[in-house]
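2 proteins. here.
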Amino acid sequence: MAPAQIDLPKAAAMIDHIPAGSLPSRKAPPEYFTGDVRMDLITESRPPSQVFAARVTFEPGARTAWHTHPVGQILHVLSGVGLIALRGEAPRTIRPGDSIWIEPGVEHWHGATPNTAMSHMAIQQVEDGSGATWLEHVTDTDYLKPAT
């Protein structure tokens, strides 16, 4: 059986190639993050898809505020050493290659360790225009609890 013929002009119209470096890095908003955090967009949700993905780089000591996700979140650590914590628990150490699934509605934070930067890919679904509900900043007391 011969392979199906592909209409190349039509196929090219189905792909949106975003070359590396064509989207500017942006500083994460201080109302949701502590310290120096840079976000590099991978994709924003585009109907019918509701997926948002970004590479997020945390300098030492930087972290998110407490937050939840309406449809959950996947983190995949790319470099460095980081921390993630659920409300009421000690932080857990996360390293390159680790993937973390956070259930919908679970209060958590994530970021770099006090002495080491960390980058991760964050992937979440957007619901009603939002991928997260942001809460208060993480205190130094919560951030500096010994990690497991």
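next one coming up
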Amino acid sequence: MKSIYKPFIIAFFCAILTIIQAYIAMGEYAKELSSGCIDCSFNEVLIKHAIVLIFIPIVIMQLVSTFIFKKQYFISILIGAFLIFVWLKIINTDIFETRVSSWSSFTNEDRDSFVFKRSFQPISICIIIYKIFILILDKYIKQPQNSLE
């Protein structure tokens, strides 16, 4: 398989993982009204988040792992895991904020603490699944040799 497809395969896989993770972490609020979009369903919000937000860390991770830390695979794994964690927590925070905390009296600290507790396990599992997927994908998609080396 050609390496030109790799970023698209990764982005699609990450979009699916984003939806699954957010549904596991914040799915109990699916029937709550959203203060940001009264007419939007929970699934619509998840798909929008998955499409818009997940592409940013994927692009950054690919740039970091391909050009900056190509020889230091462990550092690129740590940076990638951190970026995925931050972006998925942002998605979960937005969902919680629009569906729960905007209708009640949560402080920012309470909101962040609650979202972190609800999100840590699903996000961690998604990061592990993502890294396994990348290892498998790297095995089947060969990167072209960089002429600068």
